Every structure is written in structure tokens, then in C-alpha cells.
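Audit log entry. Action: structure prediction of a protein-small molecule complex. Ligand: pyridoxal-5'-phosphate. The ligand was supplied as SMILES and no pocket hint was given, so placement is left entirely to the predictor. Protonation state taken as written. Sequence taken verbatim from the request; no trimming, no tag removal. Recorded inputs:
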Amino acid sequence: MVMSINNETIRQYRDQFPVLSQSVNGKPLVYLDNAATSQKPTYVIDRITDFLNNHYATVHRGIYQLSQKSTEKCDRVRTDIKTFINAKRDEEIVFVRGTTEAINLVAHSTLHDATETDEVLVSGMEHHANIVPWQQQSKRTGCRLVVSKILDNGDIDLDDFLAKINANTKVVSVCHVSNILGTINPIEAIIKAAKEVGAYVLIDGAQAPAHFEVDVQALGCDFYCFSGHKMYGPTGIGVLYGRYDVLDQLPPYQTGGDMIETVTWDKTTYAKPPLKFEAGTPSITEIIGLGAALEFIKQVGFDLIKKQEALLLEYSTQQLSQLKSCRLIGTATHKKAINSFVLEDIHPHDVGTILDEEGVAVRVGHHCSQPLMKRFDVPATIRASYNFTNTTDDVDRLIQALNKAIEVMT
Ligand SMILES: Cc1ncc(COP(=O)(O)O)c(C=O)c1O
């Protein structure tokens, strides 16, 4: 049994999120769609407003003070991210729009010279963002996209995964945490096996760094990426970590201003990483917002975050298991606070609508992972995804609303 944290302590944090204080249909909002995107605390909102009011200017190009200070502030965030994920150098942190752009970048750059003998290995639980870019590059180059199996409890079939790594494997790309099943994957074993055959390894960390510590040096992956908006920061900013020697040898993804060293009509030479991968004016304000989000996470601390989210997972799983006709999808022992489930004979979209009437916001649908829906033989699921601002009272409200849906629909 996970120790309970005083709901009052949690409410003090939750009160820092203006959106969460509203009512929907006359009922206090219960926000359980944190895996899609997290709400923003005042700390982040205020920092963005202050930057726009007082400090905004372009970066890298200005000789004037405002631009130099803006550049310094963005550079400081790059350093903070380096520290947050324990990268070795600031130059290993590439600012991108989000996880999707990061994976497109890596797929484009690592497979630029792929041939028909090369293979890319992904797991059967990937988000479309970690399927489609590889599929498209495979079609362009003729290399093969290989998919590993998923066990009935939502774990990766590790034996199958490891058996599929071979001398032809050029890239292994796998999520750290599944956005549907909640499974925390054994990425250490996967990275080790992939590095033994010299493959590049990318970890899609979209669902991880808001919830627990990530140490890219200890992991030993070549690439690790995540999105600011899922960790209390704004949309339009994300991070691609890449080992410096790997980034240095890869060709750029996009080209244009800021990523060059010299340009003539005949030829362009590129800047060193990370600028080589940051064509165009970056998301300056959003970088500042992401920096504030990291500070916010630090203030709360992973001890409290992990404890509260473990409690929520245990309590919600217990409560849902007792619910008539509920089938949980994703029951791995090592998982994050996400419940995906279906209610027998009721379409998830109908459940979602009734839950909304009750003021409970969940995601229903295929959650950008149609192949995984097929694997579990469902058209869609209901997904309640928690973060540390949720309480067991929120879980109770979810269960009450689900009981209402069962009553109305059966
Ligand atoms: C596991 C996973 N990968 C990738 C993505 C794509 O992230 P974004 O839409 O921020 O680019 C998501 C978003 O839900 C995700 O959950």
C-alpha cells in the first residue's frame, strides 16, 4: 500500500493552476487528460508574461542589449535542460517543436543513407509519432520497419524485441512510457542490446520527464526526446537530446537561417550542433516557458510527484477493477499513472460524453496508436491519465461518473 499524501498539500499545488478552478456543467472540473497535455501553473504563465512584457527579442542575431539578454535567457534554459536530464554538454540539447518533430528529425537524419538491408525496430505500443516517420523513411529508402510483440498485460515482449535486434538493425526507437498502457519499458536492456550491434537508439520520452527522473548518460541512448506541453510548459517547444558525436556526424533535417556557417550560391557549410538542427527563428517565448516549467517541477520535487502518482495508480486501478463490466487494458507491474479501459457494450465515446456532463475530462479514442488498438481488439479506449495535482477524490468522481454511464447506457 502506497502512503497517502495529505490531499490539502496536493490542493495547495493544484490551486496554482488557474484552469483547474473552473466548473463544467456546474460541477468542479476533474482533469484526467494529463497524458495528452498538462495544464499550466501560474509560475509558468507569469514567467511567459514577464518575458513578453519586458525581455522579448530575437536570439543569436542582435547586437543590441535586448537581443543579447534574450539569447542569454534561452541559453540558460538549454543548460537547465542539460542538467535536468544529465546530458554531458549544452550542445547536446536541440530545441524542437515537440516529440513529433524530434522523431521526424532523427528518422530523416539517421536514415538519409539507409539501404534495403537496413532495419528499423520499434515496439508494438508506439504512438503514431514513433511509427509514421520511420514508415515514410522506410518507403523512401527501401529499408525494413520491424515491429516487436506486446504481451497481454501491456509489457513489451522483451525476448521477442531482443531477438529482433541484429547486425542489420540501423535504428531502434521505442517509447520510455506508453501513452495508452502506461507501461514503463525496460529501455536499459533494449539500449544495451542495440548498442552491442552498433544501432542508433532513440527513446521517445514524451510521457516520462514530468513524472520521474531521466538520466541520459546512465541510459546510454543516442537520442531522447520530449515535449514541453506535457510537463507544465507551453506547446510549440520540445527537446531532442542527442549525443554530441552522433549529432556532429549526422546531416541536418531542415535548412535555412541560423543553422549555417557560410552560404554562397554554390554551397553551404553548416554550423556545429545544436544550431545545425535549429533552422529558423526558434520558439523563443516557449523556450522561456519550458525553463520555468523545469523550475516548477524542481520546486515540487520528484519525491512528492512519484509518491502521489503511485498512490493514484494504485487507488484508481483498485476502484476500476471493482467496477462492473470494466476491462483494464495495460496492467503491467511497472507502469505510470494511466488507466486505459473499456466498459462492456458501451462505446468509449458515449462514456466520454457522459463523463464530460459530470465534469470529468478524460480522453476517448485510439490515442494516436491504431495498431495498439488492433492488438487489444478494441476500436478505442477510455483513458484517465493522472498527474500529482490529482487526488483520490478525483478518482472517486471518475468512478461515480462511470457508474452513471453504466446506468444510463445499459
Ligand atoms: C508516447 C508519445 N509519443 C509522442 C507523442 C507526440 O507528442 P507531441 O504531439 O507533443 O509531438 C505523444 C503525445 O501524446 C506521446 O504520448
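Audit: result stored. The chain has two domains: 7-31+301-409, 45-298. The CA atoms of residues 298 and 364 lie 31 Å apart.
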